[in-house]
Amino acid sequence: MTSGLWELVLQGIWVTVQLLFFSTLLATAVSFVVGIARTHRLWIVRFLAGFYTEVFRGTSALVMIFWVFFVLPPAFGWQLVPMWAGTLALGLTYGAYGSEIVRGALGAVDPAQREGGIALSFTPWQRMRLILLPQAVPEMIPPFSNLLIELLKGTALVSIMGMGDLAFSGNLVRLALQESAEIYTYILLIYFVIAFLLTRVMRGLEKKLKAGVGKAPRKKTAAVPVPEGSGVS
Amino acid sequence: MNWDWSAVSDFMPHFWDGLLVTLQILVLGSAVSFALGLVWALLMRVPSRWVTWPIGVVTEFVRNTPLLVQLFFLFYVLPEWNITFSALTTGVVAIGLHYSTYTMQVYRAGIEAVPVGQWEAATALNLPLRRTWTAVILPQAIRRVVPALGNYVISMLKDTPLLMAITVLEMLGEARLFSQQNFQFTEPLTVIGVAFIIISYLASLALRALERRLVH
Description:
heterodimer; A: 233 residues; mainly alpha; B: 216 residues; MetI-like fold; 8 helices; globular; ArtM/GltK/GlnP/TcyL/YhdX-like (chain A)
C-alpha cells in the first residue's frame, strides 16, 4: 500500500472518530432525556417517551439512515450535511437503546433513597439531580460501554451513503489496488483497536464514578469452570 | 410533504419479495448463529488454553468489529481465494458468524447457570461425558437461554438490511431499487421502516409469550 492510500485511510479514521463523537453526544442526551421522561409522573410523558423508544428501537439503523438522507430533504425542504444526517440517524437510534439503560438504572436505585428525598421535601428535579442520578449513573456505565461499541460498529453504515468514513476508505483502497484481503484486514484491525481503547476508557470512567459514591468497581468476571463432582456448591 | 398512495401500491409486490428474502436471511442466519455459538461455547470449556485462547481472541475480534466490513471482507476476499458463494449465502454466513459471537456468551451463561448438583448427579450415575452434556446439561441450559437468544434474533432482523451492501435484494435493497427507478424515495422507505417496526414488535410479543411458557 502506498502512502497516498494510507492517507485516505487516515482521513477515514478521522471521519469515523468525528461521527462517533457527535453521535455519542446526541445519543447520550437522548438517552437521559427519554430515559428520565419514562419515569415522569404524567402518563402522557411516559407514553410519548415509551413510544419514541419502541419506534426507534424497532426499526433498523440503516433504514433510519436512508430515511434521514432521502425522505427528510424533500419532505421538509432542507438538506443536512452528511455528517449531521449520520449523527442524527445514529444518535436517535442508539439513544433509544440508551434510554432503556437509563430507565433500568434509575429503577434499580433503592426506593428508600427516593422516599428519603420526599421526606426531606426535595423537589422532583432535586431528587433526580442530587439523589437518583449520582447513584444510577455509575451503574449505567457497563451497559453504556457495550452500547458505545455497538455505536462504533454502527458508524460504518454511513459508508453506504457515500460518506468517507473508515469502511468507505477501505472500499476505495480495494478499488485502487484490486486486492481486498489486506486492506479489509487492516480496516477490521483499526476498528478493533478503537473498540479496545473505548472499553478501556469506559472502565476507567466506571472506576472513577463508583469511587465517587463509595462503591468498588465491578469484579472482572472470570469464567468460572464448574468443578465437576467436587462437592462445592 | 406529498404522499403518493399509488407509489405504495406499485411498491408492494417488490416489498413482498424483499420481505421473503429478509425472512430467509433471518431464519438461516439464526440457525447458523445458534449452531456456531453452541460450538464456540462448548470449545471454550475445553480445559486447554491452546483451544480457549484462539477462540476467545477470534470471537472477541468478530464481536467488536462492524458487520458491514465483515460482509465486505467475505464478499470480496473469498472469491480471491477461489471460494465463490452467492451473495445471499455470503450474507447468511457473515451475519450468522457475527451473531454466533453473541449467542456464545448466552450459551455460556446458560451452561454456568445449571446447578452444580446436576454435574455431581451425572458423575454419580457414571454417565459418560457425551451423555452428561446431551441428556443433562444442555437441555437445562438451552431452556433457560431461549428468551435471550430470541432477543438476538430481533437484533439480527434489524441488521439484515446491511446485506443490501453486497447486492442482496432484501427489503431495503428492493426499496432502494424501486426508489432509483421511479424517483420516489419517501413511500418505499417509509413502508419498510414501518414494516420493520411491526415485525420486531410482533416478534417481541411472541418472545414474551414463549418466555412465559418456558417458565412453567
